[in-house]
């Protein structure tokens, strides 16, 4: 067993969470309260999810409903991170466009069986990856458009369509959202040993099989994230995903 869930486990978690919040507070980064809340939420949510997965794992309708719930939470989280305006729900498009085609392909080819023990973690990884790049690409693109608003207007004055002028300004910043995933894939096995690989090893799989599963996850995740960033950029350029005011 990798960890023993006891009082020591809880105490160490509390100390690490307090340390993170304290460092952020001392550095005046403005996120100390969010770190404490995020840690507490993670503990409650993981405890609840552990119980729910054991309940839905034998029922296909409940299993699919749980995946849709994961998607809905990701949409709400990403949308509200990008904008507080009414357009936040457009975050549903990049996450769906990235995740569902890849997940459907994996299910149809049989690489991922339609069983909770496989579907939930794979769907969670893909949805989580799409959530991350959607937030990063959306925020960076909108920030760039605000800072370089004059360049957008200059482009339109030269005859570019609104969409094309915004794309010229926002494309580079939005593309930076792909860098964490690219760096993780480039350095896998050399700098990091990601969760799927470690989990397979701890579950008794051979190192070769664990490596194959991790490669499959990383490549699938890159496909999901590439589509999500492209869709976010298009939505921002067309003014669908915006910051009101």
Low-pLDDT regions? none
**Averaged pLDDT, please?**
86
Question: What proportion of the residues form beta strands (DSSP E)?
Answer: under 5%
Largest sheet: none
Instruction: Give the overall form.
Output: globular
| Count of strand segments | 0
**H-E order:** HHHHHHHHHH
How widely separated are the two ends?
Answer: 53 Å
If you had to describe this structure to a student in words, what would you say it looks like?
With 245 residues, the protein is an all-alpha fold. The protein has ten helices and no strands. The termini are far apart. The mean pLDDT is 86. It comes from Streptomyces amakusaensis. Its main location: membrane. Keywords: Membrane, Transmembrane, Transmembrane helix.
Structure, briefly:
It is built from ten helices and no strands. The protein has helices spanning 7-26, 32-56, 60-82, 92-108, 116-147, 149-157, 162-175, 179-187, 195-202, 207-237.
Properties at a glance:
transmembrane helix; 245 residues; transmembrane; UPF0014_fam
What secondary-structure arrangement, pairings included, does this model have?
Blueprint lengths: L6 H20 L5 H25 L3 H23 L9 H17 L7 H32 L1 H9 L4 H14 L3 H9 L7 H8 L4 H31 L8
Helix pairs in contact: 1-2, 3-5, 4-5, 4-10, 5-7, 5-10, 6-7, 7-10, 8-10, 9-10
